[in-house]
Specification:
2 copies of one chain form a homodimer. Chain A is α/β, with parallel strands linked by helices. Chain A is built from 10 helices and 12 strands. In chain A, 38% of the residues lie in helices and 22% in strands. In chain A, β8 and β9 form a beta hairpin. In chain A, α4 packs across α10 and α6 packs across α8.
Amino acid sequence: MSSTVFGVDVGGTTVKIGMFDPEGNKQAVWEIPTRTGDSGIYILPDIAASIQKKMADNDIRKDDVLGVGIGVPGPVDETGTVHNAVNLGWGTFNIRETMEGLMGVKVAAGNDANVAALGEQWKGGGKGHRDMVMVTLGTGVGGGILVGGRLVAGYSGAGGEIGHMHIEDDETEACGCGNYGCFEEYASATGVVRIGSRILKATRKASTLRDLPQLTSKDIFAAASAGDEVAVAITEKYGYYLGKGLAIVATVLNPEMIVLGGGVSKAGEDLIRLLKPSFTKYVFHGARDTRFALATLGNDAGMYGAARLVLQQR
Amino acid sequence: MSSTVFGVDVGGTTVKIGMFDPEGNKQAVWEIPTRTGDSGIYILPDIAASIQKKMADNDIRKDDVLGVGIGVPGPVDETGTVHNAVNLGWGTFNIRETMEGLMGVKVAAGNDANVAALGEQWKGGGKGHRDMVMVTLGTGVGGGILVGGRLVAGYSGAGGEIGHMHIEDDETEACGCGNYGCFEEYASATGVVRIGSRILKATRKASTLRDLPQLTSKDIFAAASAGDEVAVAITEKYGYYLGKGLAIVATVLNPEMIVLGGGVSKAGEDLIRLLKPSFTKYVFHGARDTRFALATLGNDAGMYGAARLVLQQR
């Protein structure tokens, strides 16, 4: 009888569930809606029921299940306690204990950006690198830190929140978190657009970007690749901030590798070329050899990492 | 027969050696000179001979020795390999293997600021706090990061080099490391003096500090305590930078506690009061509850931490 582990990535609208063997080979993936109503009280029972149905359909008994790992969009500490996941309507409670009560199998829980880092380290762009940082460049900037192959969850579950490092004193617009000058205000997809709008306003140079009804990060990188001079300047400014922020992280942690994920990372190797000059300028010399890689698991990283988390904690 | 562990703190001029029982009770402390000549090849043999003499004098056999831990002023990775400790004349070699060859007992090695953090966590101001950062505010700024009670050595031994985080874009003087705007340029004892000289130049206000032949960090804090207005402004500016830098560290790691050590920490609780406003302004809200404490072991922290390091690795 083979053994099975489930990895669950809880998003604000959809829950993605993966079934894996203990070596991390994917056996099935499916999705269910995230019911965030009534303070999100149905989310975990829905997940438990869906996994139990899958188990019944595949003739998998409880004894065959090594565990269920869960990644959620909010701070989760090492004990599995979530501290306010606003997108899910959740306050503070212990996910691990609750889910173990519902399912009767071993459960582990972590922050979604953190478990994504673990997934990339297990099966993706950071494979085999025990001291690794993953930065997810999406609408916001998420981070996950691995030391000796294990996640740094942080004392109250906020470990790896590198999107909210202060890196710019002159910022006048507030970040979503309420602070001014957070890394996320520049290094996210939204940051690319903010930098772009500012540069477009500050120059009279012609640019194909001026013709667009709404500027996106993707447009800007595409125009830069096509040789648009203003777009090139925008991506260079973006790379400046990305490199500067990651230099601070590398100086603090001296990781072997930084993995770049999220929507902006679709810009590919270009991104690494763009961040290198300011990274090299600002990083401490002892961490100058930090390697960079692109994430390879895309939206599956969270599922893989959640499965890995529960395997690590057995 | 009781068991014994030795903790060794190698400085640029003096080696401090402590003899402890396994619970960390200090049984003896002594010093020997650091012979940095001939690329520092005598340093480890001198230490081994000195410990062996102490063992003979106290009738301690090799079998009674749990291990020897060594902290050195340079980057040391998890395997015990040092990567250029310039103050000792050392290039790259494995301290653990070399010293085990000399002594025939278990050896562990780490960076001095890192093992000092481990010492404070074991027996000092951070006692019992597994997720802890220690910052040593001396001539420079050293850092040590503990996650789950274990040191973050970093891939090439440069973990916790928070003194070299970039925190100020407008700096025109270079840091010792060659970069501009490092945390250490403001948060060290030297930083207090630099901030002081700049403020004294920028104002015409009377200050007792103007009468001093040479400004020191200690003078500035003393004058501030005595109510000197300019000195108060200097310490507030110092607190601003200290809080800002530590806010970045806390945002990345979400530690339970930050322990302040080194010469400047003799300013005591005042220091915590001074750093709090900018810490609270710049830190991510999820890490806002980070607690602060003062180091309590002084120059003994390295010895304690070195002993603890080898006990952890047994």
